[in-house]
Specification:
Length: 203
């Protein structure tokens, strides 16, 4: 499918989408905020006072949710794209895969954190298999980082695509965490291969 055809269909779909409308009415920057809200309603991963790393944060729906709904959270957001500031959170514009980005995150917190959440995804190429493989690599990178940077009772949440990397991520997560859940929030589009992996308590 041609790129401009994808864009036109994307615009049409966005206009019809109830979560897009709701996010505009409620002042959130993206419909993605409702996925995190639904994940948290079911799995209780965020609490007041938590230290939180938001990987692939732009345009900022997830970060807004943490800052607006919870008190005294220390939040760091990173994305390849620049985004408008959110409260007193700290932002890095950069590639999470780079060693220097990880060092910046570690230097900012100087201690282990409560929650690492990743909604990182590559820009869609139109090739669903390729997108799912590359996004799977991002998820694995986030999982490995969370293993070294989370507190023992910490939480890890990541976007994960049904596809060739799914089992690899789930198996590695099982070796790393005591509790694993796979959850597709109601606001995640049905036609999308996306789900989320929610992990608790490091082994
Ligand atoms: C689905 S969007 C995130 C939406 C966000 N959770 C929200 O609530 O607004 C995925 C983001 O991942 C980012 N991303 C992809 N690869 C990345 C990487 N290597 N490092 C940092 N961010 C990355 C993209 O730039 C994009 O903004």
């Amino acid at each position: 499918m041609k790129k401009n055809k994808i864009s036109k269909e994307w615009i049409k779909r966005q206009r019809r989408d109830i979560y897009v409308k709701k996010s505009k009415q409620e002042g959130f920057r993206s419909r993605a905020v409702y996925k995190l809200q639904e994940i948290n309603d079911k799995h209780r991963i965020i609490k007041n006072g938590f230290s939180v790393i938001d990987l692939g944060a732009a345009p900022g729906g997830w970060s807004q949710y943490v800052i607006q709904k919870f008190r005294n959270c220390k939040l760091l957001s990173i994305d390849l794209k620049e985004m408008e500031p959110i409260g007193n959170s700290y932002q890095i514009v950069g590639d999470f895969n780079e060693k220097s980005s990880k060092e910046k995150i570690i230097n900012y917190f100087k201690e282990k954190v409560d929650l690492v959440m990743s909604d990182m995804a590559v820009n869609t190429t139109g090739n669903k298999n390729l997108d799912s493989v590359v996004t799977g690599e991002l998820s694995l990178e986030a999982l490995r980082f969370s293993k070294s940077e989370l507190k023992p009772n910490g939480f890890f949440v990541s976007k994960i695509f049904m596809g060739s990397t799914f089992n690899e991520i789930v198996n590695e997560a099982k070796l790393t965490f005591k509790e694993i859940n796979i959850f597709k929030p109601p606001s995640s589009r049905k036609e999308s291969k996306e789900s989320f992996i929610i992990c608790k308590k490091l082994r």
